[in-house]
Amino acid sequence: MSGTVGVLYRAGGVKATNADLYVRTLGFRPTKLKVTNLTNQVEVEWHAGLAEGKNLKRIAAGDLSVLASGGVTPVDADSNGNPGFVIPAALADVNDTTTEDLVWEAWGGAPALNP
User: Fold this and answer.
1) Of 15, 24, 45, 108, whose CA is between 20 and 30 Å from 8?
2) Domain count, the chain
3) Is residue 35 part of a domain?
4) Rounded-to-integer distance, Cα 9 and Cα 20, Å
5) Which domain holds residue 35?
């Protein structure tokens, strides 16, 4: 029998890099991601079920739009076994400078327990 037990959650902060920014400190592959640029109050979200890179984007004025591609995306484990996500360099208003502060949140399902 498969399923999930609980929800895993991690949060953190990073400085924008204007280069692909990989976060691999989660310990799980996320099923929901949220990244907020604190400097300009823009946030993006990705949820399982959306295509990778397709995000909801909310700007400071509150307007919500859909990015068809180029948004935050979960990534499989690297050669050290660390899954995580990437904030692309091309993600306008989020990771397009080297001076802005970003905060992120990631959620994932815990693996099923074996009886």
Assistant:
1) 15
2) 1
3) yes
4) 22
5) 15-102
